[in-house]
Amino acid sequence: MSSSRTDKNTTPVPVCGRLHTAIAGCLAAAVLFLSAAGAQAAPAKPLAPAAAKKILRQYCAECHGGQKAKGGMRIDALDLDVVGGRHGERWHDVLTAIETGDMPPEESRQLPPGERTALAQWLRDGLQEAARLAQSEAASVLRRLTREQYTNTLRDLLGVDTDYTRMLPPESPSRMGMQNDGRSLASSTLHLEQTMKVARVAVDRALSLGDPPAAWRFRVTFGPQVAPPGKPVDLGYQAQPLAPEQFRVETFAGTGPARTPTLTPRGELRDRVYVDLRGSHDYDSKKSSRRYQVDERGLVLAPAKPHVERAAQIWQGPNPNLGLVLRDFPSEGSFVLRVRVARTSGQGDSPWLRAFVGNRLDDGMEYATFDRSRRVDAPPGQPQTIEFRGRLENLPVPIVDPNDREFLSNLMVIGVWNDALVTQAGITTPALAISSIEFEGPITDAWPSASHRAIFFDDQRLAEPERYADEILERFLTRAFRRPPTPAQLERYRRFFRERRRANHPFAEAMRDTLVAALSSPYFLHHFEPVEAAAPRLDPYALANRLSYFLWNTMPDEGLFAAAREGTLVANLEQHVRRMLASPRARDSFAAFAAQWLDLGALDRVRVNVKKFPAFNRFIKDDLRTETMRYVEWAFRENRPLRDLIAGDHVMVNQNLAGFYGVPGVVGPEFRPVPWHGAAAKGGLLTQGSFLVGHSTGTESHPIKRGYWVARKLLDKPPPPPPPNVPEIDHENPAIARMTVKEQLALHRDRDSCRNCHKNLDPWGLPLESFDAQGLNRSTIERDVLGEKITLPVDATSTLPDGTEIAGIAGLQHYLADTRLHDVRRAVARHLAAYALGRTPGFIEESALAEICERTVAEGDGLAGLVVALVTHDIFTSK
Amino acid sequence: MKPRQISRRTVLRGLGLLVPLPWLESMGNAAPATKAKRLAVFYVPNGVSLPPESSPAHKQWSWFPLGEGRNYEFTETLASLQPHRQRLTILGGLSHPRSREILGHAAGDTFLTGGDVSGEYRNSISFDQVAARHMGRATRHPSLVLSCDGGIGYKTRVSTLSFGPGGTPIPSESMPRQIFERYFQTGGTEAEAAARRRLGERQKVVDVVKGDSSDLKRQLGKNDKERLDEYLGVLSEIEDRIERAESWIGKPFKVGDIRKLNLDAKQINPEEYIRTMCDLIVLGFQTDTTRLVTYMVAREDGMGWGDQFPALALGIKDGHHNLSHDRSLGAFERWARYDQFLAKQFAYFLKRMTETQDEEGSLLDSTLVLYGSACSTTHNARNYPLILAGAERLGLRHGRYRVYGDGVPLANLFVAMLGALGVKTPQFADSTGATHDIFSA
After folding, report:
1. Smallest Cα–Cα separation from A413: which of A361, A357, A371?
2. In this predicted model, what pLDDT tens digit does every residue of A867-876 receive, in sequence order?
């Protein structure tokens, strides 16, 4: 029963159960749509609140009153003052349910047409008035930088690319999934204490105070007899150390001070550096089939097999991988790894080289790659040098415990593998010959560094220390606060600086402390969005800030600052958007938007059953995540038609993922859009594994989760929360275990308590039954029932909530892209607006969303057009 | 065993603060403390000897008792705990679901965290540190993290039980004298002045930030003011922390009993060493220096001093890790004799905790004590051998051998323990509820 055990450990299949806990409240159809519907209705006499109350009590309170609050709705607890009360959103839900005919449910007593119209009219009038009054309230709230924004901002402010996200607590997402929503972003002591700590470290890293750091410099050369022979050192469980004669370790000269390596009593450098090819074996084959060797060409690495996914085992890296195992190493700063490498054959596809840093664990290796993968073009015998650069503090170097003298403790691993991953037939990549590897770090561009000189911009000015300090402060605070500091603010920091000076701190140290203090200011940590004197329009700096964090997820660049300063930003918004979309910085922001909108975190919450799906190797999950991020980014940047999100004719793949999906002819590790006209459905978000796997159990598909995702993310129609004590389907019952998922779902749709919600949920997931839990097409369903393997047919037909009958993914794509594209457009617009504004758009902003959608259509219905329509709308340029 | 001594130097340096008088006699000069709730965790590596029922050694040497419920019987392994039987519960069947499949030694990393190190290494905060965030400010030190080898070790073979937010390992202390000097003595004027200066500088940063905040507040509308108030609340809490930290500097220690302390104890004499560490924990509680202690008695997988303990203490030839793999004749008994040795040291701790009093009664009555391992037996990260003792004043009801099913994650116990400590949290790690049945409160 291996598969059922995996289920228990990851996501159980109860029909409601855990899924329900994730279902948030609902906010459904558009006021626009409702207004149109209202216009068609006969004018009715305005209803008095008491009369409305009577109707509600008569037709709704049975299920939505007192202790019985179905779907979380208690109508008798709502404030009958629709206009001035605090339940606008809830009344909007009520109106939606009545207008769409969802309520009362079929089996209950129905509202007579007259009363239905009157009640709806009463709600509509009240809500429209409320929307008008509340327009000024629909403002973004003061919100702090998310941890991603914070670390990106520090990078651009200080000029050092250190990732500080891991030092800060994760954000809790809003109901729409956004992590930058002002109402869910909490401040905590942990958060502020950590940011204060980070501020100090970050400023220190940017400045060159004291002496330049001494660098570790050594070179490892490979060959059959390049050093005296000996016995390989024992590097523990599963190690594959090279023999001492196969590698030579030596130091080399560089510019700047060198760190003298700590030598062993024998005085040998090679006792501080070992070479290990741990992980370079086939886990599933008993016979030794080495994919590396040492010969005259150096260390020869065959194209790596991706790390086989093994449940509950720690990473070993792909097979083969070459690791230098270091006893002494720096723990932070920039470093460079220089690899002398050549192809072993001029024939075949290009090999690629990938670099990684990690630390030795007893049962494997914790590691992360750094820099880009590089293509190797050097012909046999004429190696080229490839430089990989990174920052050690961003990588999993061991946290050194000087107290731990175990031989296998505190070992850092740095190395490379041949990145033309072998997953498909017909790939003819040759092996790579590594002749030597050099490590140098920490390195600095200069001393003082460029980041130091960006702050202390002119040492000549030290002759007038007071004025120089003022200017440094003004420059820095303007960038840190994303607006010029007020005179009072400037004075406050000036005083702080002078106090430090009086306490005998040197100029640079006193300034360092002052800058650190500024990085804890609410002006730095928050998005401050003041409006212009007369209008609700944002002031130019606030607009530049909002635009920058929307499209780049970081602080404005000099171009935006200049436009804000000169007052030209509003007039040239569209140009700025185009420029910003074209910048590489847009990648970060659209990746973040895709991850939050589409809930890519779901992928991390599923453990794929690798016994059932052996092709799901360890790189597939990362690739699936990247696929969706890059696809969304590409679609927005390239102004792809909106319908590409549903039914595109491109897939975004690299070689590894292409092999998994069965897309032929894709070579190399870089992601790219590939035109796709294959037989099996591909293209668009619905066929991407990040969604299909993320909303499965890891063993089986999960139509409810998938349906919920479609309803929520692509149609923005989330169902209400479930009632308490939802009965679960008994999967231990053999009769049920043998049913198709569709038959199982039919079981609960026979229950009154489930049907009303699930009729709007399950039909969206059922057409995707032709995709298994690893996100690939299937023609039959294989299941293990109490040890017996059974095969069931795939049934991907579905009756949608509006009665349309569709079949399979093609049917769903066709329906969404042709019949419901306006709903999809609105859903995308609403999520994009939430991300851009840092708040959840309320019902009073439906007309704004409608205008944005209209303009998008008018401009050709492209996704970049949607961004322009949003950014140039009042909703974005006003508070 | 050698008689325990305190060096003359220790007395001279420590005694000004730690008068060796029982608590009652010096009650007159003690400030009334809030009712203390405490936690002590002991970890032993490599699992325990569990001869199968088919083995003749089962009845004599199985770590887990025979029978279940109230009428269980200790084997010789835990027999030394008999006097404390009504003050403890033996727990069976518990484990961390996410660590069940991994090679048992790495499960030690997640003993108090329930983190997931099964695929990518993702450890998380340990529950004692969750408690420390809530309770830590009431004492001079939020927690005391001890081990046999000190430091943090390395991932999958850690040398600490405690992890901060994000799963950052917290370095442990292992040298009795260092522990005493670092945690139970005030630092001397120079160190104190440096600490004051550091805190003063932090306060100045807070002052500047407060200035910016009130500027900002004037520029904000009503809704935004509320958001800023949240930030200001956090800021004043940080100020409060700075003040508290300052208030401890130079403040005399509460009276504790150091007559039995042997600060020269070394790992080479395991019994003396472990008991000294126990004495230090008791002292920490008695003086209310800390209310949270974790102690990794030895490290997993034959790392560090602990592997030699069976040889050093009992003359058993093999290292502890090898013992746990040995399947030769008599191996279960050899291994169990070391389990028995560890249980005796634990019994010593319970005895001292029972005898030592605070304002409310015995220290044990207000202290949750957890003892155990992250493997039942060789490499098997299920059915952890666990003992929960003490804390009857916090609502615990003892006297049973309680066996849980596979469906109850160990984190459920931690949620209940946090609750007993006054830290109400609905969830910890992968908990699905709380094991309330041994907690009457």
Report:
1. A357
2. 999 999 999 9
- Same domain, residue pair A372 and A472: no
Task: Output the six-digit token pair for A133.
Answer: 């009054």
Q: Are residues A482 and A436 in the same domain?
A: no
d(C-alpha A535, C-alpha B361), whole Å: 68
Instruction: Return the structure tokens found at A213.
Output: 């750091």
pLDDT mean for each 10 residues of chain B (441 residues): 38 34 32 75 96 93 95 96 96 93 85 89 92 89 92 88 89 89 78 85 91 89 81 86 83 78 91 96 93 96 90 91 89 95 97 91 96 90 96 93 93 96 93 86 46
Helix H segments across A481-599?
Answer: 487-502, 507-518, 522-525, 540-551, 558-566, 573-582, 586-597
Alpha-carbon gap, residue A413 to A367, rounded angstroms: 8
Q: Does residue A118 lie within any of the structural domains?
A: yes
- Cα separation, A522 vs A481, in Å, equals 9
In a domain, A416, yes or no: yes
Distance in angstroms (rounded) separating the CA atoms of residues A573 and A876: 11
Show which of A528, A559, A577 is a domain's final residue.
Answer: A528
The 10s digit of each residue's pLDDT in A145-192 is 999 999 999 999 999 999 999 888 888 888 899 999 988 787 788 889
Query: What is the assigned CATH class of domain B8-183+259-438?
Result: alpha beta
Cβ atoms within 10 Å of A119's Cβ, excluding its own:
22
**Are both A655 and A713 inside the same structural domain?**
yes
Residue matched to tokens 């007038």 = A464
Looking at the complex, report in whole angstroms how far the Cα of residue B151 sits from the nearest Cα belonging to chain A. 6
In a domain, A236, yes or no: yes
Beta strands (DSSP E) in A818-866 are none
Burial of A327 (0-12, 13-18, 19+ CB in 10 A): middle
**Residues of chain A neighbouring B238 (CB-CB closer than 8 A):** 189, 192-193, 196
A604 and A748 together in one domain: yes
Integer CA distances (angstroms), A337 to A252, A272, A433, A656, in order: 13, 17, 16, 25
Q: Are residues A726 and A804 in the same domain?
A: yes
Asked if the Cβ–Cβ distance from A404 to B241 is below 8 Å, we say no
Domain ranges of chain B: 8-183+259-438, 187-251
Q: Are A122 and A78 in contact (CB under 8 A)?
A: no
Q: 10 Å Cβ neighbour count for A723?
A: 17
| Residue where the block lists tokens 């660098």 | A215
Instruction: Give the domain range for residue A375.
Output: 216-443
Map residue A658 onto helix, strand or coil: helix
According to DSSP H, which parts of A606-719 are helical?
Answer: 620-637, 644-647, 655-661, 689-694, 703-709
- The number of beta carbons lying within 10 Å of the beta carbon of residue A666 is 20
A259 and A112 within one domain? no
Q: Which of B156, B212, B70 lies closest to A480, judged by CA? A: B212
Burial of A461 (0-12, 13-18, 19+ CB in 10 A): middle
A positions 733-772 inside 8 Å of B (CB): none
Are residue A761 and residue A814 in the same domain, yes or no?
Answer: yes
Whether residue A406 sits in one domain with residue A394: yes
Domain count, chain A: 4
SS3 A607: coil
DSSP reduced 3-state for B46: coil
Query: Distance from B401 to chain A by nearest Cα, in Å?
Result: 27
Domain edge (last residue) among A106, A137, A168: A137
- A196 interfacial to chain B (CB closer than 8 Å): yes
Q: Tell if the CB–CB gap between B169 and A399 is shorter than 8 Å.
A: yes
Contact A404 B151 (CB under 8 A): yes
Question: For A485-493, what is the mean pLDDT?
Answer: 94
Q: How far is CA B36 from CA B199, B288, B358, B392, in A?
A: 27, 8, 9, 13
How far is the C-alpha of A316 from the C-alpha of B43, rounded, in Å? Answer: 28
